[in-house]
Amino acid sequence: PCANRKEMVQEADVNGNPITPRLTGNPNFDRIFFPLADVNSDFNAMLLHVSKVYAHGFSIDGTYRWSKSIDTSSFGRGAQQADPSQQNLDRGPSDFDVKHQFVLYGLWDLPFFKLSKGYLGKALGGWQINGVLTAHSGFPWTPQQGCCFFGRPGDLANDINGDGIGNDFPTQWDGKGGVGSSNQSFVNGVFPKDAAHPNGGFDYFNIFTGASCPNFPVNCITAMKRGPNGIGRNRFRGPHYRQIDMTLGKHTLLPGFMHLGELAALDLRANFFNIFNTLNLPPFQTGGISNTDFTNPGDFGHTLSGLSGRVIEFQIRLSF
Questions:
Q1: 200 pLDDT band (50/70/90 cuts)?
Q2: Which sign, positive or negative, has the C-alpha torsion 226, 90, 67, 280?
Q3: Is the Cβ–Cβ distance between 5 and 41 less than 8 Å?
Q4: Residue 72 contacts by C-beta under 8 Å, 6 or more apart in sequence?
């Protein structure tokens, strides 16, 4: 399947910033975010589906998707644009883009005591086990400069391109780091300090200083245009995800039970979410988050928390 959508809505700062003459902002107002229908997106995917029913009540169903989603803004968050007046700078993988996704579902109606009559059949028969394996590759993320444009006051210190919005992209990357093949690599950091990068993120990416943009903001805005070594939006990928959930359930008919009618039934259910207690790490979040700020050597490129572990839930339902 494929899809192409144009003129989706985003919020953009239509006032600009007083220090940026080319945006001709009104100095009597601060930022003015206005909905604009100017976002473009593309989605393409290949789907593979396999389903098989076996003997003795067992069946499986599996789906694999290879896809790519590209846009200029994923959630209408204009405050995270490199430059509101140049959307092409932000065209890249969507924030929710997942290259590979696999889901495998299995169900087994246990045959034990299934045909037994009386109380033995009602107590020990009618059980069902099902499970779902979910796995997908990581979500994309973008390194950003949280600090510091030297000589700029306050919250403008990280505003490289002069649009009044901070957390801008770096201009160059040395091509090292950024790839994590396991959870541990993200815990340790995908941009580690080493002999070639003793200062962490500062040494992997070019950072603007007052000397590099003497005619601010003109030189900085020009430099923000992606060159051969530039960093586009959502250049890197966060940790992958994998989890197995299982359910053990039983449906027992109770016709005539306590005069509740012929359709009376008792359902017992035990849900095991993340049954093997697999460690999954949250996706990196762009926009003022410390682990995407390459000027924060302590957190940059590191996973700072984990997602939920094993959760067990029991249910009992009487229907009539």
A1: confident
A2: positive
A3: yes
A4: 10, 39, 40, 41, 87, 88, 90, 91
